[in-house]
Amino acid sequence: MAMADTQLHRLFLFVTLLAAAAVSSVSGARSVPAEPPSAYEMLEKFGFPKGILPVGVTGYKLRRSDGAFQVFMDRDCEFEVDGGYRLTYQRTISGRVAGGSIRDLRGVSVKMFFVNWGIDQVLMVDADHLMFYVGPISQAFTTDNFLESPECRGCRGSDGGQSAGGGSAVAAI
User: Fold this and answer.
1) Residue 136 Cα to chain centre, angstroms
2) Signal peptide location in the record (predicted)?
């Protein structure tokens, strides 16, 4: 009889340990998931400084399989940059991102020679320089210009009104 009691006791301990492990794994599954990274943090993961996006991003979508993305803002955004250029960000910005490269960019333009030109590509040339392409024209800027996200001035919300403005900085996506 004593041997049967010992085996029964071991079986009971084994079942208890299995149950405890199952409860532990289920309770772990119920833990609060980590918040996804912000659009600014994602830019940094792809090797870009966060300051190429202005303040005011409300969300983004990223398809990891091919790098296609959309960035959403609550309104259009305009600001002046060094050299007297005016950058405009539309409410939705899209393109494809890979390490150090943004291609097929839509929704960002720069006013030069009285015409708005779409910025269609941004490349990290090296750790200290970004290259912006407007069609066949390109311009390099140091990454120091993009450490902080600029605040928009002259922004148009859905009601067409103007928002209060913030400082100026060199930025583009």
Assistant:
1) 27
2) 1-28
Helix (H) or strand (E) holding 147: none
| CA-based max dimension of the chain | 99
Residue 135, sorted as left (phi over 0), alpha (psi -120 to 50) or beta, turns out to be: left
Burial of 46 (0-12, 13-18, 19+ CB in 10 A): middle
Q: In whole angstroms, what is the distance from residue 53 CA to residue 41 CA? A: 11
Q: Which top CATH class is 39-152?
A: mainly beta
The two tokens of residue 107 are 């929704």
The closest alpha carbon to 108, from 122, 98, 129, belongs to 122
Q: With 0-12 CB in 10 A as exposed, 13-18 as middle and 19+ as buried, what is 172? A: buried
pLDDT 10s per residue in the chain (173 long)?
555 454 544 444 443 333 444 444 444 455 667 888 999 999 999 999 999 999 999 999 999 999 999 999 999 999 887 777 788 999 999 999 998 999 999 999 988 888 889 999 999 999 899 999 998 889 888 888 888 999 987 554 433 333 333 322 233 34
pTM of the complete model beyond 0.70: no
